[in-house]
Amino acid sequence: MRGLAVAVCSLLFLAGCTTWNSAVDKMFSSHNAQPQPAGPVTNIDRCIDFMQKAYPDAHFEVSNKRIATHANESVIDIQGTRDDVPVGGKMPRVIAVQCRFESGVIAEFHWTSAPLP
Known about the structure:
The chain is of the alpha+beta class. The chain has two domains: 1-34; 43-113, Roll (Nuclear Transport Factor 2, Chain: A), CATH 3.10.450. It is built from two helices and four strands. The protein has helices at 2-31, 43-54, and strands spanning 60-70, 73-82, 94-102, 105-113. A four-stranded antiparallel beta sheet has the order 1-2-3-4, with helices on one face. The termini are far apart.
């Protein structure tokens, strides 16, 4: 009788874990669900994505992209022009970032022309 109770409790525990894992997976996959790009994602694309996520309120068009590579390191400069800031306004209209990747992993991100005065 005791063995049966242990078996039933074990099955209920495992069923609960499976349900919990499914709920957690569903929560995170639906929360961060974004359309996937059609082609391969380059480090330039990733740097632009970091730029957009670092300042999500800014609306900008990428006006210049530059990449320098050496061995397993790449340094990417991205410049953008904000279309939500008037020419001659208080806020900078031209913004820029630099990303450094080592073996495809982001190692550094910083603003070279900050979006705030």
